[in-house]
Amino acid sequence: MHALKRVIKLKTKNEHNYIRTLCKSCLQSTVPDIRIYEVGPRDGLQNESKFVPTDMKVELIHKLAAAGIKNIESASFVSPKWMKQMSDGVEVMKTIKRSPGVNYPVLIPNLKGYETAIKCNIEEIAIFPAGSEGFSQKNLNCSVEEGLKRFKEVAVQAIKDGLRVRGYISCVVGCPYDGPIHPKIIAKITEELFAMGCYEVSLGDTIGVGTAGSVKKLMHEVVKVAKPENLALHFHDSYGQGLSNLLAGLEFGIKTVDSSISGLGGCPYARGATGNLATEDLVYFLYGLGVNTDVDLVKLIEAGRYISNFLGKMTESRVNRAINDRFKNHSDIVKIATCTVN
Fold first, then answer.
1. Mean pLDDT, consecutive 10-residue segments, the chain of 342 residues?
2. Catalytic machinery residues
3. CA 258, 263, 267, 273: dihedral to nearest 10 degrees?
């Protein structure tokens, strides 16, 4: 009986040591620093039917900055006729208190929108051609080629004015109107956006149909025309594939990831598209990979609840739901994410 107890004790001790070694190994196998590009105040809110007052949008942006987010897409200068939720872009950009080291880009549809935005002390803009003809017609009311010409005019002017230009491509994997999209088409558009002067191109799975397999096929083509460090990934989580798709993309050396607080998002012209990859889930995921994002998850979760409570809906972030009010200290959450054994 005593011999059996010694065996059990030895086995338990060895298992504990194994777990410690495994966790240490996990932390040493880190991925490069990842840049988080928050789209919640723009992409996250644009499809919400309940209008979010300007002061609440501003407060959300402040909360995100306070949590440690360094890139916050804050407004859109599309016509209020098509997107009422974004009609207060000027007020938002003129009201926010800008934190040092934080970037506040805005979305620009055309030269008219740019002319309005340039009066708001902006430093970076984003342009957004589609990866499919069907979505381009619905979202931009023009062909892909016409859209690229329109955005080139905006990019040329912005660069002339000393601004940074970021490019989005929507429907990079599948389109609600045209179906699956060939990766070579997306690679070609990516190449054209860099030729316009974009410093970075974000590849958006607008309706969330991508899988790790389809993302890898896409990346194999796109990295032929662009360096991975100049690309970003933008996943909607409609089918619950956001994080697995991201992991597939990170294998190619991607260093920028778009996400939205509380998993907010959707597009009025993409039937079936649900929210973006939640920023809370992304940050927890990255800490688990050993990436120090310098983002305070406690403050981030509070920001997610702030906007979700106003909208009267449950957060779409699984991490936000799971953690709830269990932790008041950010480091305690990181210990869980990194499987740190005391």
1. 42 44 42 87 94 98 98 95 92 97 97 97 97 95 96 98 98 96 98 98 96 98 98 95 96 97 84 85 95 94 97 95 85 85 64
2. 267
3. 100
